[in-house]
Amino acid sequence: MASGKDLPVSPLALPLPELPPVPGVLLGTGVAGIRYKAREDVTMMAFPAGTTVAGVFTKNQCPGAPVDWCRAALKGGKARALVVTAGNSNVFTGKAGRETCKATAAAMAKLAGCKPNEVFLASTGVIGEKLPTEKLTAALPAVHAVLEPDPWQHAARAIMTTDTFPKGATRTAKIGDATVTVNGIAKGSGMIAPDMATMLCFLATDAKVPAGALQAILKKGVDRSFNCVTVDSDTSTSDTVLLFATGATKHPRVPAEGGAMLKDFARAVHEVLMDLALLVARDGEGAQKLIEIHVAGAVSAKSAHRVAMSIANSPLVKTAIAGEDANWGRIVMAVGKSGEKADRDRLSVGVGGTWMAREGEIVPGYDEAPVVAHMKGREVRIDVDLGLGRGSATVWTCDLTHGYIDINGAYRS
Amino acid sequence: MASGKDLPVSPLALPLPELPPVPGVLLGTGVAGIRYKAREDVTMMAFPAGTTVAGVFTKNQCPGAPVDWCRAALKGGKARALVVTAGNSNVFTGKAGRETCKATAAAMAKLAGCKPNEVFLASTGVIGEKLPTEKLTAALPAVHAVLEPDPWQHAARAIMTTDTFPKGATRTAKIGDATVTVNGIAKGSGMIAPDMATMLCFLATDAKVPAGALQAILKKGVDRSFNCVTVDSDTSTSDTVLLFATGATKHPRVPAEGGAMLKDFARAVHEVLMDLALLVARDGEGAQKLIEIHVAGAVSAKSAHRVAMSIANSPLVKTAIAGEDANWGRIVMAVGKSGEKADRDRLSVGVGGTWMAREGEIVPGYDEAPVVAHMKGREVRIDVDLGLGRGSATVWTCDLTHGYIDINGAYRS
Fold first, then answer.
1. Are A26-282 and A290-408 equal in CATH topology?
2. What is the pLDDT of residues A16-51, one digit of tens each?
3. CATH class, range B26-282
4. DSSP letter (8 states) at residue B78
5. CB distance A190–B316 less than 8 Å?
6. Does residue B67 belong to the interface with chain A, where contact is any CB pair within 8 Å?
7. Would you say B393 and B301 are in contact if contact means Cβ atoms under 8 Å apart?
8. Nearest by CB to B336, which of A62, A320, A337?
9. Which residue from A170, A275, A357, B355 puts its CA 20 to 30 A from B224's CA?
10. Interval A115-141: pLDDT, tens
């Protein structure tokens, strides 16, 4: 993280799409001056009574105080407000960190007219520095006073820390005859690895979905998206994905267990999550290339996923790709180091659709030209066939460049 | 690996010590022209009849053909010769790779007057290219003709690939009243992680030790040394440690199970292994700082080791240290991502002997000056106390710098 210094926008950036209002959701952003000067660092969302919520959090054993807060609040299944701060993660801040969460939720609950455990909190930024609680609580009334349905684009920017571009996605879905919207925004570009592959991600919809069904859809979607993305293998202490469902749009009643009626809605949620996860990989610290790794022929899908992640996290593979070198020997090494079942003499490796090695040997006289051309592009595809079974998996990462060292060797200084 | 291009010598390099002759061992080096031009790339050792051997190899599931060869040969427990080549690893070379091993061992056995399975082989360098067998076998007679007891220093250089300095260590030990010597040479600077933390390492002694006792001593020593060193988390397909015992020096007979009589000998072997492992970390690709990580208070030694390796392999920790930033928040993150038992609120983190965080919170008003001074040095020490139990472990790594990207982004090109 670069202390708010301006970084050049990632060459893999995509433009922020138009994010329409989501019926029931009001947003606002403001300046609390927590760490950054002269930029918005507080983002607020408010939801109507009856809003349900689902959440998935980091598996890091040393999570931030806001993660603990959300985990506890999630048990109620209801949400009325979200407060996000940028610049200080409120991680490893001991009792003071817990007090900050309590005070922030109390102040927000008073403004929103709800219970503190209907307020959700998320913070990212520096670890181990006390978050100046009063600056934050003092900033809330002004933000609350200007809440509106529109400023999704603003919110996508206000939650950024080292991100070089704002990240958003939107879809519509049918529930019965009604059309509902799913919006999402995310931040994150380093310290990104399952679980989870982002720092913060917030989705909201106007569908009316019971909390249990909402949680199942979110969990499945995160497993297929964020948990298939890695930037540097490091797992944030703050990773948080929350999905709020306001129920502001009328549609046939969804049963507690969800079921077939939510099929199209689940697709929309999963597409938004996938869009956002890939945007995070595209903004990987120092990233010059987006890498898609497809592993087939594994003994199981789980095994394929582990092999793919071993390749995606290999510094030697990632530096080779940065150097535009289709060094398939390093891919073989990364397959072998995963510890998963593999047979060197059945292994095949391809880059950009050209098989360079087949069943344990180099393919004699394979055409290097398309491989060389592929490696020069912004998107690199690696295929591995283990030749053992039917398990497959796809994961995404980015290359490891001088930019990563520049960004991460200078933080705090 | 930098294709034999000259890299600046690591600032952490130590001078190669005088390596005395080891009674019974003859060495030679020569030029086969396997990949490099105008440098020695073949190293040979010859041992007298009765020499025993022990070996430890990579756990990578896709090992090179020479590793397979050595594993099989090791079953005999006897050795008469070693042939090491630099520039081509003979990994992922299919049937051709196995034929190369067979032909090399046959040619060497003929020269040494022994069986092929008394010949040990090791190769490092590029993966997936066929090793030109005839160039290698053609070079062997000339090397064999000039074998001498002295050229340990030469051998330490001839086995290098991307190493920026040669690595050797020596000790003496008492077995009864006799003094024996243990010499070791190693190569390796990238693709270094347990198990093992080197690419190639060869030890020889004039002690007479049964193969089983020799294997136990080597295994224990490797676990405490090479398996506690990581450069980039990537695990070589060629990692090999071999220990040859010629028995050329008379001493009381060692029983098959080894035992107390070998205590001092085991110490000497372990010290040589530890010296060499740290030299490998000091030559980590792009390394500017040697990092020692000590974890205490874990629920077990194994758990402590895993936490320490999680810190040692974290790109964010390693880049922070490259930037001379004592970013203990990233250390907390790396503890948490290990998945090992940890309690954020009992965790303490120190750098260079100064505790910066104690029991889950920053130490108020800790003196930053000695920490800042420590971070500017060549050797950085990190202490973590998990506050849970009595398990402890120490591991070593190096920082992650622009040099690593330079070296690994340009290989093969």
1. no
2. 999 999 999 999 999 999 887 778 999 999 999 999
3. alpha beta
4. B
5. yes
6. no
7. yes
8. A62
9. B355
10. 999 999 999 887 788 899 999 999 999
